[in-house]
Amino acid sequence: MNAVETASHASEFNLTSGQFQRIRALVLKLTGIHLTEEKRQLAYGRYAKRLRALNLNNFDDYLCLVEQEDSAELDHFISAITTNFTGFFREPHHFEFLKQHVKELLAKKSQLRIWSAGCSTGEEPYTIAMTLLEAVPNIGRYDCKILATDLDKKVLATAAEGRYPLEKLQNLPLEVKRRGFVKGSGANAGFVKVRSEVANLIHFRQLNLLHDWPMKAAFDVIFCRNVVIYFDKEVQKKLFKKFSQRQVSGAHLVIGHSENLANVSDDYRIVGRTIYQKK
Ligand SMILES: C[S@@+](CC[C@H](N)C(=O)[O-])C[C@H]1O[C@@H](n2cnc3c(N)ncnc32)[C@H](O)[C@@H]1O
Predict the structure, then answer these.
(1) Which of 88, 125, 162, 268 is most buried by its number of CB atoms within 10 A?
(2) 43, 89 in Cβ contact below 8 A?
């Protein structure tokens, strides 16, 4: 949502304090995202679009709809409020670390499990996969799997498709583009598709980090970057406890540039810039 959009529709619907509190409570319950009072205008703009799409003329009717059990609107309600900004090789030092670390791990064992938790539109897990292939070109000889999950079904569908506008690659070195993507032609002109050898390393699944997790694997590396920044401390504490229960001592956890584990988890020690190791 941009400023112009907010201003132009500011008076279209009335969002009372009571209605905003109901939105906040539902967002927190469903996603763990803590909407501060400052986010009121943002929430207004995002949900006003849903009112228009559904031909509703007030927030009460919209809230009655989403508050129903198993409401078909819930996926849209969640999708509207999540922040999905991401990019290939975002925070590149994490992938320098991963490249080195994977070589060391696979020199000692033949199985590797990596989790991209909160993968958005897929740039993060594809970057992980491209890094693995660069580090260990014969990776097919090992049992390597990347699990990529997100709560938001809409972004996950984009992720699983692995098709991106060319502009998304504009800051990548030519060599990385060549190794990771196939350029589209005809109806796909202006787009790239992730190469199958990269995509084949990844399993995409919808998963709410606040719910129970079906996976039993112990993860060598967990990427959970720029996800918990929107959660309150109590939710963060529970989440990092669950991450640590899915890792053995010595395994790694990578978080976003503006996040840290101080007062959140004692289970990890810091070993690099926003890179942690399970104690
Ligand atoms: C800003 S994106 C981060 C993408 C990527 N990790 C990165 O750093 O580039 C945050 C993602 O977290 C997801 N998310 C938010 N709350 C979640 C939850 N409770 N469970 C799972 N994913 C969640 C959002 O849908 C969104 O796609």
Answers:
(1) 125
(2) no
User: What pLDDT is attached to residue 6?
Assistant: 44
The helix (run of H) or strand (run of E) holding residue 21 is helix 17-31
DSSP 97-137: HHHHHHHHHHHH-SEEEEEEES-TTTHHHHHHHHHHHHH-T
Instruction: Determine the distance separating the centroid of ligand 1 and the alpha carbon of 227, expressed in angstroms.
Output: 5
User: If you take atom 13 of ligand 1, which residue's CA is the nearest one?
Assistant: 118
The pLDDT tens digits for 79-90 are: 999 999 999 999
Question: What separation in Å is there between the alpha carbon of 9 and the centre of ligand 1?
Answer: 27
pLDDT bucket at 11, cuts 50 / 70 / 90: low
Domains and CATH numbers, the chain: 3-81 (1.10.155.10), 93-278 (3.40.50.150)
- Asked if residue 127 has its Cβ within 6 Å of ligand 1, the reply is no
pLDDT of amino acid 4: 39
For residue 203, the model assigns a pLDDT of: 98
Can you name the residues that pair with 272 across neighbouring β-strands?
A: 275
Contact yes or no for 260/63 (Cβ under 8 A): no
CB 162 within 8 A of CB 126: yes
Query: What is the separation of C-alpha 243 from the centre of its chain, rounded to a whole number of angstroms?
Result: 15
pLDDT digits (tens, 9 = 90+) for 216-230: 889 999 999 999 998
Please answer whether residues 14 and 58 qualify as being in contact, where contact means their C-beta atoms are separated by less than 8 angstroms. yes
Q: How far is the CA of 96 from the centre of ligand 1 (A)?
A: 22
